[in-house]
Amino acid sequence: MKKVAYITGCTGNLGKAVIxxxxxxGYHIVGTVLPGEKNEHSFTETELIEVDLxxxxxxxxxxxxxxxxxxxxDIALLLVGxxxxxxxxxxxxxxxxxxxxxxxxxxxxxxxxxxxxxxxQIYGGRIVLIGSRPxxxxxxxxxxxxxxxxxxxxxxxxxFLNAEGGKKNVVTSVIVPSIIDTPENRNAMxxxxxxxWIKAEEIAKTIAFICSDRGKSYREPIIKLYGNS
Length: 229
Hints:
The longest helix is centred in the middle third of the chain and has 26 residues, at 93-118. The chain has one domain: NAD(P)-binding Rossmann-like Domain (Rossmann fold). Helix 3 links the parallel strand 4 and strand 5. The protein has 7 helices and 7 strands; from the N terminus they run βαββαβαβααβααβ. By secondary structure, the protein is of the alpha/beta class. Helix content is 42%, strand content 17%. It has a 7-stranded parallel beta sheet with strand order 3-2-1-4-5-6-7, sandwiched between helices. The chain has helices at 13-24, 56-70, 93-118, 138-141, 145-165, 183-188, 200-211, and strands spanning 4-8, 28-33, 46-50, 75-78, 125-130, 170-177, 222-225.
């Protein structure tokens, strides 16, 4: 029986790269899209489900429906998130709550039911979160304050989940990319040196490795993928 990969943010550049990589590994892939968005995408390798990831009840139900249908989730890749500029001078509570909701709540509302299910599996499971370098490097985070703060919570979440899940072989890792080489980022920074950026395909290969049998002994909670930058 195929292993099941549950992916949020599957329609983004990183999501598409991850799907392509995991398809080679033979996973059955379940990916989330926004309500009303399902018919806008065509993924022959992926079963798409519509869910509002900012809603805890609906996020939990989507995970539970997948578990009921397939018997379990082997890996969960929580790729969805948002970005916003803003320093301490112009980041108010509204901006902070928006980033908190997009980057932390969407991850937690999916990670929690997935984690609880994996703790019941004999073989455990893998959860992968997407962090950010501005959350680790203060001088880079000062101009993206709300974004950096919200992403920083994912590192602590991974620590807590690993403290609880280690003996059950439920492992959570945070991938920390530098600037990802995407069309959107190139358009936003036309004068940048793209050769120093990390490609989505490289991140996808790393994720596939740590989730595979080949990488089952890998326990590093923070994986920095900075390319040449």
